[in-house]
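Co-fold these.
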Amino acid sequence: MKINTNYLNLNESYLFSTIARKVNEYKAQNPDKEIIRLGIGDVTLPLVKPVVDALKKASGEMGIKETFRGYGDEQGYGFLREAIMKYYADTKRVNLELSEIFVSDGAKSDIGNILDIFSKDNTVLIPDPVYPVYADTNVMDGRKTVYMQATKENNFLPLPDESVKADIIYLCSPNNPTGAVYNRAQLTEWVGYALKNRAVILFDAAYECFVADKSLPTSIFEIEGAKECAIEFCSFSKTAGFTGTRCGYTVVPKALIVDGTPLNKLWLRRQTTKFNGVSYIVQRGAEAVFSPAGQIEIRRNIETYMNNANLLDSALAKKDVYHTGGKNSPYIWFECFDGMESWAFFDYLLTRYGLVGTPGAGFGSNGKSFFRLTAFNSYENTLKAVSKLLK
Amino acid sequence: MKINTNYLNLNESYLFSTIARKVNEYKAQNPDKEIIRLGIGDVTLPLVKPVVDALKKASGEMGIKETFRGYGDEQGYGFLREAIMKYYADTKRVNLELSEIFVSDGAKSDIGNILDIFSKDNTVLIPDPVYPVYADTNVMDGRKTVYMQATKENNFLPLPDESVKADIIYLCSPNNPTGAVYNRAQLTEWVGYALKNRAVILFDAAYECFVADKSLPTSIFEIEGAKECAIEFCSFSKTAGFTGTRCGYTVVPKALIVDGTPLNKLWLRRQTTKFNGVSYIVQRGAEAVFSPAGQIEIRRNIETYMNNANLLDSALAKKDVYHTGGKNSPYIWFECFDGMESWAFFDYLLTRYGLVGTPGAGFGSNGKSFFRLTAFNSYENTLKAVSKLLK
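Predicted complex below.
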């Protein structure tokens, strides 16, 4: 018996445990000081009423013989896939087939599991800074990884480098952690690179709902040719507060063919073999997100978060601090004040103002003098944070 | 870009699609004839009231700011893992630590995903006949597979063959498709073999709740030494009708160490990187399975199914047909009448009696003259089937 020794090459991340330890030490030494947490990457507003009503109704159906549901299709119920198909058609003018949509328990699962269908011999291109899952899941498989540099010089939106050969490309837009959003011309460059190099783009669209600027694409499939070179991952987590309810979806276009094999067919085989679908109850909840009442209410929640993001964005602009995000993203990524490094800046904000954020160094070497704040706390707390940042 | 070409080595299974086609053809030709389906591998009784109440209550909590839950621990909420821990202690006299229990969306996912932590160089030992997921998931990884022969001679309970070297061993007891159940002495042999050969047993206990005979083990961990060589998979699917609600759990003992690396640590890393936990709502539903009222009601459902199984078992005994299962399992596996091969027997039962089951050939070469019936239809339909089988 041999283990997968690639696991031994994984770095342990101490980012969030170190933050927690530092905050606890500060609290112990300063029991009367208020702490404002803008490091939260989780939503805080509850599920909207149409979703809760749908969850309760579906729970009731499961208790009655005539409406009980056993195994569903691994790729999701038709009612939910149809709602997603309509959402793409109505809001992104992207036409999908039902069989191109796969419902899952979340984007993180699919982003990890999609690697099953690719050879270990591919080279992976990942941005720095990065959502750690992209890198770790490839370390687990022993794939060669090269990094693209996201820096102040390119506004944290790296573009293709023709001298770099990559087979699998991770793009996340709006980005976590930087909040930066690719425009149409930039995504067109990436699609061109992928088509030319026969690479596949794994496009993480988990934050698409925060894009307010209508000129910005919210799906890679808005770009011509993307259906021949991209897979898109999306989630109800941030869109509709499903971080604890668990539902997402992945789009694998039929036109995406590698060496004669449609990746849609491989992913279908992967999911039907190693997955048994998402809870019927949860899928009914997700369907309600797309109802007219559901859309109105989730939009209100998104606006609440974006109002917070805009407060932070304006404060940093006023202070003339270089930053990305905050406009079409719940994340704000900014240069640490006075040339500080990100951990020193973390200590500074905590001890001086009781303000907690996330040091950029935790997301990669290009984050070492940057800092991430999020829009998921309350309006009141965000206002307090802003007043402290402006001091 | 290269795909995982191991996928091209997978056999397409036409088992259930062929059955569906044959049944549809028969129905078209015989519109007035009644069809009785005893091929169902899915539960048919609805969720019990304590579970439905818990699902509704948790849905309501998610709609209120004070009780809303965002991301939970990937390995499951403490309340559910504590209930599982208590279930093992009370019903199996197996003491587990909380950190040895991982809640998931189902046993199929975990049985597939667990292979991530093992090297591709291991040799896998799989029974024939078999639940196809064991074989297919290893084909996807390109692992070498050897088969152990489950036949009439060993009552479909193969024991270790010292001349066969294997690193990963799949055992399923009560078995799908044969319904055969290993006794304590037999499992002790397997644990001995695994410890001697430094192999890991993947023990599928999805049907443990159907074991009525108190002398039979319902967990591999009832066997001394198993914590050093086994991982156990279990599910609420058949126990509590969760096939469409989706919840299961996997036990990875801390004492299971390969080349100095605890597999518990690897699985925790796999799950925290590629999974985000099960819906809070579903976990509350699963917790209610273990409540006193939940236990009484799920036991009543299990008895309903077992009553059907016993009917089939008695009928075959009366007819003096060799069979396994039916006593401590919802599956009945029997020798086709008059030396027929399983597909011919399928046609015979369908065209003569309108009775639908599953040909053993669909589960492996040792099933070619065997047939599977299940206990998941109604009492009335099972009675009808029995009267036809006894003709």
